[in-house]
Amino acid sequence: MADSFTLLATTIHSGDTIRLHQEIVEGDKKRVQVFEGIVIAIKNAGMGKSFTVRKIGANNIGVEKIFPVNLPSLKKVEVRSKGNVHRSKLYYLRGRLGKAASRIKEKKIVASTVTAV
């Protein structure tokens, strides 16, 4: 059971809200498509590792995309917020509606203080 991985020098965990920039080729034109959502699952290991990102689209319809970690068309990854979850698979979000489907507690980062002696 994988709970984190590193993609393009960014560490991603289950429950994180991320923004993926994917290059789409249509004929002879290229464009960058942005997909923002919550990482609900990280599966497998090694070269077969993949992760599932879920967002709530228009008319409250859930949209999920499965991305292989070594997908060459992924150009940029941004972690928008770190999620404070206690499970590696967040499939329970599929049964929720509205804001409850995308609301995850944020991880509070405690600044450590170092005192010189």
Describe this protein's structure:
This protein is mostly beta strands and 117 residues long. 0% of the residues lie in helices and 47% in strands. It has strands at residues 4-7, 10-13, 17-26, 29-43, 50-56, 62-68, 74-81. Strands 6-5-4-3-7 form a five-stranded antiparallel beta sheet, with no helix packed on it. Strand 5 (50-56) and strand 6 (62-68) form a beta hairpin. The N and C termini lie far apart (43 Å). The relative contact order is 0.25.
> The CATH topology, please?
SH3 type barrels
From the N-terminal CA to the C-terminal CA, the straight-line distance is 43 Å
Tell how many strands the DSSP assignment holds: 7
Rg estimate, integer Å: 16 Å
Q: Assign the structural class, choosing from mainly alpha, mainly beta, alpha/beta, alpha+beta, or little secondary structure.
A: mainly beta
Q: What is the element string, with H for helices and E for strands?
A: EEEEEEE
Q: State the CATH class.
A: Mainly Beta
Helix content: under 10%
Strand order of the largest sheet: 6-5-4-3-7
Shape descriptor reads globular
- Unreliable spans are none
Question: What oligomeric state do the depicted chains represent?
Answer: single chain
At CATH level 2, the architecture is Roll
Percentage of residues in DSSP E strands: over 45%
| Mean pLDDT level | 86
Describe the main β-sheet briefly: 5 strands, antiparallel
By DSSP (H or I, 4+ residues per run), the number of helices equals 0
Total separate domains: 1
